[in-house]
Amino acid sequence: MFAFSVRKAAVPLVAAVVVAGAFATIGASSSNARKIRLAAVLPNTSDPFFMTQVCSAKQEAKRLGVTLRMFTSTSTDTNAMANNFQSALLTKPQGIFVTPFNNNQFIAQYKSLMKKGVPVVTGNTTTPATQYKWVFSAADTARFAPTVLQSVPAGSGSMVYLGGAPGIPPLEARTLPFVKAVEVARPELNRLPNDYSGFDINKETQNVSSLLLAHPDLKLIIAADGPDAAGAAAAITQAGKAGKVTLVAFDAIPPEVQALKQGVISYLIAQSPATIGRLSIRTLVSYLKAHPRGGRVKVAGRIAVPNQLLTKATVDSPKNAAYVYKTGC
Fold this sequence. Notes:
The chain has 329 residues and is of the alpha/beta class. Helices cover 35% and strands 17% of the residues.
């Protein structure tokens, strides 16, 4: 299960603060809300990141008393996405939440929908922006470096970045600021060449096993995604180095959470797909209630959802529930 959200946005993610209660004026079901019809088109629900968005979007629609038709696929296939998007449009939604892996796949359709008064919210902005709102994970991860480095013994040693695959903008936009912050804070750590497994758990297990043998001074492993984290955790466990090598990983899929609780993973830097799903639906409803007469929808910017640092002691806290990914509703 790939919980790294490969969304090929062509522009960098910019961190921003989501103000709590920004949509507090949107109440539960009302006579106007009951008339609102929404559709959501999401890919790759075999990935807990997207499945969590599905669950939270459904929950928010129910809370607000609006109709939400969900169109999903378990793959990243663009043809499946296109078919689902077309099916969604046939339901004549008043607003649509859609996140294709190819960010510009539906740019013409977005323009047409927005012209007709149908707001589009997406987790993957077009270039240039043609959607009403872009709701995405912020790149605010450098701030976690001081806390993580408390678990890395002082002095020389080495570190390595497990990047999944090179050249994926959303992935690198979230992970590389953290890596850079670590390099600045601990220049004495020798950064080994980046390791790319192609998001293959078994391959990463082998790669990290080799790294641990070749570099006995390896102190810090940074895994950019769920599969690489799972592979690294397996290798560390096999080498008997749990707790001796700091493993910090991005996302919070079930295998990562289990390894965190076992003390193999030291920290998780998690997105909040639950918040993304919830805010996407809430944003559409807010717009439609504010514009009952319709009219052309204008591009209105972005909402950046902050990341959270999870530890063994905090992962089960109710306040962090939105940062733990689900495999089903």
